Amino acid sequence: MEDNVNRDVSVSDMVYFDRRLNEIIYHKRRKAIRWRVVLMVSSLLTAYGAWFWMTDPTIRSTPVFESLGNHSIFCFSLSLLFFLFVFLRIHQRIVGSSIVASRCRRILTQYCLDCNDEGKLIIQPTA
């Protein structure tokens, strides 16, 4: 009787952990989509500004900082990319769900469990 109670508690704990892990990874992925859009827009803006900066015929005759001052879109977007990567750590925000899943996989292998990229638990057979 006591063995069945322990088994039921273990199963309910595993189900709760599975739901919670799914929830965490789902919300991290939703946030990552927003950050991917921000990164894509800032990257395209930087490429757009760089194109006009590099095709400017006066680039050869003007000093670098003066040329950059003439192309404020490129300077702004490059500064934005720097800010996103250094201060906001956008790379970690984009791949956050993968980081959580890989760390959980590492811990779960000790208990003959695994999880996929969505956070679903996978029970592995014991050897």
From TrEMBL:
GO biological process, alphabetically ordered: lipid metabolic process
Looking at the UniProt entry, the stretches that span the membrane are 33-51, 71-88
Lipid biosynthesis as UniProt keyword: no
Q: Which GO terms describe its cellular component?
A: cytoplasm; Nem1-Spo7 phosphatase complex; nuclear membrane
Its placement in the membrane is given as: Multi-pass membrane protein
The domain of life is Eukaryota
* Swiss-Prot/TrEMBL keywords: Cytoplasm, Lipid metabolism, Membrane, Nucleus, Transmembrane, Transmembrane helix
**Major place of localization?**
cytoplasm
Compartments reported by the entry: Cytoplasm; Nucleus membrane
Q: Which InterPro entries match?
A: NEP1-R1
Pfam families found in the cross-reference section: Tmemb_18A
Keyword Zinc-finger listed? The answer is no
The family classification in the record reads:
Belongs to the CNEP1R1 family.
UniProt protein name:
Transmembrane protein 188
Source species = Parastrongyloides trichosuri (Possum-specific nematode worm)
